[in-house]
Amino acid sequence: MARKANTGSADAANQGRLKQIALTYKMTRKADPKVGLVVAGVGIVVLGVLLAIGFLIGHPVYLGILGFVLALLAAAIVFGRRAERAAFGQMEGQPGAAAAVLQNVGRGWTTTPAVAMNRSQDVVHRAVGRAGIVLVAEGNPNRVKTLLAAEKKRMSRVVVDVPVHDLIVGDGEGQVQLKKLRTTMLKLPRVLTGPQVTAANDRLRAMGDLMSNMPLPKGPMPKGMKMPRGGKMR
């Protein structure tokens, strides 16, 4: 019975992965119609090269098996990168897109979306990790600078010994493209210990933020969303 249960769980998990891959492919194909041809082409080229080498050295079976495995791996890598690019392309320009990226930066980071916002939907998100505090702003570059300065001043009351980095998402000079946001954050030098990160999070959490006063959906915010009257503004 236990074996049957384990087999059933494994089958269900595999079916779930296949459905996820199929869904990802459909979403990617909408933004990248050639993704199927590119992925298949990469796999065929890798397999063909290994097979050719196998015939040349007299081991077509061994090189064929190796080529098949490497072809699947190469196809998966290419598909993953194109799917990621398509996802970023769909999120680009949507309010709150940076928050969705921050939620998936990786382990060791604590993200708080929309710690500051104005009526024009310019917004600042906060992430805390071994690199310190990272404030990520999206919106009009001139307006978000004011939001960033106000948030830094507010945080300085409770965190004086933690480095603060600020990033503005965009394609302009001195800004960080959405697709490079995660990489940029991971490249920041790690200067804090685990306990220091925990202490900084606790102090910031005690300070409160916009999210504790106004419920917002996770991920990209709906276009046309308005700040409610009486809402806390920064």
Automatic annotation (TrEMBL):
Q: What are the boundaries of the region Disordered? A: 211-234
Q: Which UniProt keywords apply?
A: Membrane, Transmembrane, Transmembrane helix
Does the keyword Transmembrane helix feature in the UniProt annotation? yes
Q: Which residues cross the membrane?
A: 35-55, 61-80
The protein here is known as DUF4191 domain-containing protein
To which species is this protein native? Streptomyces narbonensis
